Amino acid sequence: MKRPIVHKFGGTSVRDAERLRLVVANIAQSRREYANPTVIITSAAAGVTDQLVGLRPDTWLETTRLLRSRHLQIANELGLSEKWKADYAAHFDRLLGECPVGLENYDPATLASIHGCGERLMAPLLAEALVQAGFQAEYIDSAPLIRTDNHYLSAAVDLATSKTQIAAALNSILSDRIPVLAGFIGSNAEGHTTLLGRNGSDYSASIFGAGTDAFEVWIWTDVDGIYTADPRHHQHSKLLREISFRESAEAAYFGAKVVHPYTMWPLLESDTNLRIKNTMSPEKPGTLICHEPQDRGPDLITTAIKGVAIVTVGGYGLIGVPGVASRVFGVISSSGTNVLMISQSSSEHNISFAIRGEDLAITLQALNHQLQDWMEREHRIDRIKVVENAAILTVVGENMRGRVGVAGTIFSALGEAGINVIAIAQGSSEYSISIVVDEAQVFRATDAILEKAGSK
Ligand code: ASP
Ligand code: MG
Q1: Which of ligand 1's atoms lies nearest the C-alpha of 260?
Q2: 439 C-alpha vs ligand 2 centroid, how far in Å?
Q3: Taking a C-beta distance cutoff of 8 angstroms, is the pair 4, 214 a contact?
Q4: At residue 232, what are phi and psi to the nearest 5 degrees?
Q5: In the structure, what pLDDT confidence band is assigned to residue 455 with cuts at 50, 70 and 90?
Q6: Which H helix or E strand runs over 7?
Q7: Cα(146)–Cα(192) distance, integer angstroms
Q8: What is the CATH number that goes with domain 5-296?
Q9: Which atom of ligand 1 is nearest to the CA of 197?
Q10: Which of 8, 55, 251, 397 has its CA 20 to 30 A from that of 118?
């Protein structure tokens, strides 16, 4: 048997009956072109997860009524049978018929099982739409197949166990059926539903890709692929034909929205490639994310995270003292803040780090409180400086590696455009350079870099 192609459809691709017909047509087309078995993973219809996340006991009735009618209307418009619709209504009521007690006190286990309902509502609909079009499709509950820890709302995946469970459940049916599964959900060792974190369906798809030893995982979305910069804002941006796993992981981490940053890792050790495809333009090849790109096209990707604060902890008493970084970052992690980027000058009297603006208050509070001894008694730290409303502009490109002059070109482009650079960090892997600039200048900075350094 050939290795399967895993198709993952995002929320906009399944938002109504019209789009679902397109999904069915795209699957039909890909099955005409490829003799590989098919696995399908779906997100919830666009907006549904947000509605579920917003559910409160007092809005329960109204919101679930809207969700019920939206999904049943899709079933109507697809012309599904009365018998099927009655069963589906019962499925809906099992999932969301009653407001669970745990919702009042935000019990994470209860929240996870509610937030994951959007996918569990979409997957059977999509399966039935395929059946109606003549395919042997079958809805299969994905939660028991992906094993996670107990962090209900953003759980860590046990990849080895998940792969074994997926292979055991799917390999035998792939030769004659198309399994249709919900993205976003998994379950812990006790069998309770857990979530892979917001936008986690891409991640689900690559876990299923790893479990079925897929030939490729296709992420269907509403753009043509990965661009050198966000095409909605930068007219000079270009579509990438092929990029490496590392580059796309780096770009996703630094804010490129096309795929979830975790999507790449289940496939790192495999020879399964990922492909980004546009649901509306299935004839286009999209962007291939692969291990050894051959036909790259443009070779720099720019991406930006806005709303960033830069915190600099400085003092001459920090020079040559071992353990400074570990203590400072220990404090930050104790406040629950995620550090996006770090830079330290080799004179060692400053450590700068970038965090999200919304984490600033709690981080400063923790630093002032927990480093009091270094600030007040020992005077090792004499200042904590903050720059708000900054953006991290990251330039990613495997070809930068070992190539002289790329950083020079980037900085001269910024200099010529009159853009002040607040901080810089380059990973020693040389796959990316991150540059902190004023948020108001990030678009201009991106354009300047694309014009000067964005090759081909
Ligand atoms: N429906 C989930 C979310 O909106 C997961 C996903 O779409 O990837 O976060
Ligand atoms: Mg998505």
Answers
A1: 8
A2: 25
A3: yes
A4: -70, -25
A5: low
A6: strand 5-9
A7: 11
A8: 3.40.1160.10
A9: 9
A10: 251
Please state the domain extents for the chain: 5-296, 302-452
Strands 137-140, 341-344: parallel, antiparallel or unpaired by DSSP? unpaired
Rounded mean pLDDT of 417-435? 86
- Could you check whether 5-296 and 302-452 share the same CATH topology? no
Separation of alpha carbons 245 and 413, rounded Å: 27
CA of 421 to the centre of ligand 2 (A): 32
Ligand 2 centroid, distance to 313 Cα (angstroms): 36
Task: Single out the residue of 416, 364, 422 nearest to residue 392, CA to CA.
Answer: 422
Tell me the best of 67, 146, 184 to mutate to test the pocket of ligand 1, counting ligand atoms within 8 Å of each CB and taking the most: 184
Please tell me the number of the ligand nearest to residue 41's CA: 1
pLDDT of residue 456: 42
Total Cβ atoms within 10 A of residue 292: 9
For residues 380 and 375, give the distance between their C-alpha atoms in angstroms, rounded to a whole number: 6
Are residues 244 and 188 in contact, defined by beta-carbon separation less than 8 angstroms? no
Q: For residue 30, what are its two tokens?
A: 């890909």
CATH number of 302-452: 3.30.2130.10
User: Residue 198: CB within 6 Å of ligand 1?
Assistant: yes
- Measured distance between the N- and C-terminal CA atoms of the chain, rounded to whole angstroms: 40
pTM for the full model? 0.90
CA of 199 to the centre of ligand 2 (A): 5
**Tens-digit pLDDT profile for residues 115-146:** 999 999 999 999 999 999 999 999 999 999 99
Q: How far apart are CA 385 and CA 352, in angstroms?
A: 9
Token output for 66: 């809207």
Q: For residue 274, count CB atoms less than 10 angstroms from its CB and return exposed for 0-12, middle for 13-18, buried for 19 or more.
A: buried
- Looking at the chain, the whole-number percentage of residues with pLDDT higher than 90 is 77
Cα angle for residues 410, 414, 417 (degrees, 5° grid): 140
